[in-house]
Amino acid sequence: MATKIDKEACREAYNLVRDDGTDITWVTFKYDGSTIVPGDQGTDYEEFIRECRDDIRLFGFVRFTTGDAMSKRVKFALITWIGENVSGLQRAKTGTDKTLVKEVVQNFAKEFVISDHKELEEEYIKNELKKAGGANYDAQNE
User: Fold this and answer.
1) Are the C-beta atoms of residues 59 and 3 closer than 8 Å to each other?
2) What whole-number distance in Å separates Cα of residue 89 and Cα of residue 127?
């Protein structure tokens, strides 16, 4: 059965993360049968990491604040999580299903496809976002 997405509900969840007026910093998009729907959301990145279990696949849209004392910047990441115990067929479908998610989640600095919990570490993601951002103006602090 072809995968569908609940665009309106997913767009609403996506906008919560993008909205500077909310504390929501992440949202997941999960499978409900063959439909992608908004999953959980929260304010602590560690909560998001706990959602990424070995037996599921999901998409996450996450807000990170990067920069230094002089300049804080908000960067967004689209994270595709594919747990180690997900079947080969579901792994393959995740790539094509991501195009549906990208119809809703259109603004992000970097995209990640992750199946190893080590790659979910916040510092790793932030460093990758910093690299994707181009010029590094806080290089004098390194």
Assistant:
1) no
2) 32
Nearest residue to 108 (alpha-carbon basis) of 62, 73, 71? 62
Q: Is residue 35 a contact partner of residue 67, using CB atoms and an 8 Å limit?
A: no
Please give the model's pTM, rounded to 2 decimal places.
0.91
Q: Residue 26, Cα to own-chain centre: how many angstroms?
A: 7
Query: Are the C-beta atoms of 32 and 5 separated by less than 8 Å?
Result: no
Q: Which residue has the tokens 């665009």?
A: 7
Cα Rg of the chain, angstroms: 15
The CA distance from 24 to 15, in Å, is 10
Termini Cα distance of the chain: 51
pLDDT in tens, the chain (142 residues): 799 999 999 999 999 999 999 999 999 999 999 999 999 999 999 999 999 999 999 999 999 998 767 778 899 999 999 999 999 999 999 999 999 999 999 999 999 999 999 999 999 999 999 887 665 555 555 4
Element (H or E) spanning 61, and its range? strand 57-67
108, 18 contact by CB (below 8 A): no
